[in-house]
Amino acid sequence: MKKLGVAVIGTGFWGRNHARVFKELEETELLAVCDVDAERAKNVANQFGVKAYTNVGKLLKRKDIEAVSNCVWSLNLARETLKALKTGKHVLVEKPMATNVKQAEKLLEAAKKEKLHLTVGFLMRFIPGIQHMKNAIEDKTIGNLVCATAKRVSEWPERIGDVGVVKDTAIHDIDIIRYLFTEEPIAVYAKTGNMKHKKFEDYAQIMLTFEGGKSAFIESNWLTPYKTRTLVVTGSKAIMKLDYITQELTVEDAKETIQPRYPWQEPLKLELRHFANCILKREKPLITGMDGLKALQIAEAALKSSKIGKVVKLQ
Q1: How far apart, in whole angstroms, are the C-alpha atoms of residue 144 and residue 136?
Q2: Is residue 284 part of a domain?
Q3: Domain match, 82 and 138 both
Q4: What is the CB-side half-sphere exposure of residue 137 using CA atoms within 13 A?
Q5: How many CA atoms lie within 13 A of 271 on its CB side?
Q6: Which residues pair with 33 in a beta bridge?
Q7: What is the pLDDT of residues 18-61, one digit of tens each?
Q8: 32 contacts 65 by C-beta, under 8 angstroms
Q9: What angle do CA 312, 313, 315 make, to 5 degrees?
Q10: H or E stretch at 15
């Protein structure tokens, strides 16, 4: 079977994980890694037996590299993704994809022009419980969808420094809500603030409203002393609760509480295998560049709502 030649740009904590998974997958051949920190790039390259680069341009000149994972800091995501697209590489760019909506739009234009696959690292969609929820909503197993509540809280992550909690953390839940509801919110109201960080918000409460009265609530912060990652979806006949960390799903209706059983799977491995197969086998992508753009638009609307203290309507 033909393998997809891949490289990882940015070898911090998450980039190292991308490199590891690409090395493990049958569908991919990890060829190189790149980081502005020469020592870090060398360490990761040596770990996986590939070539290290500190200059992205030199890496992108290699014709055997067909696709890249972009795991650099948020402020540089759009710049490095645009470079890769313009040299003919397919790209998986980590969230939030870009610093702002204008940058994200340029990435979509470039990918369309070059006829390349562009996807965004919304890892949560690959957790089996989310797929179970999606099917239950579509089949109306839980009745009519009423609302969803997401909680993503933990202590302050020292590595964060270029975006706030809305674009770094809450954006995962914004994407999941869009995915499960299969429609766009019509308005957003949010409250954000900062307790431990002077430049960016470190807590946020976001409410999204949809046609027909449906709604979603998202709580994110870097203040809580222990890590919680949960999603509750309420239907007219049942309630589903997912713990992202354990991947345990609970379904409660008027008669019983059940826990569907399926083997734990590493979401990153599922995500990167799917990325490779979208290119090798032309599989239909679960996540597109447009999904990244839409989530970023909603995140920016939430920040605007908090700033002006009013509901922001979405087009």
Answers
A1: 10
A2: no
A3: no
A4: 21
A5: 22
A6: 8, 52
A7: 999 999 999 999 999 999 999 999 999 999 999 999 999 999 99
A8: yes
A9: 135
A10: helix 13-24
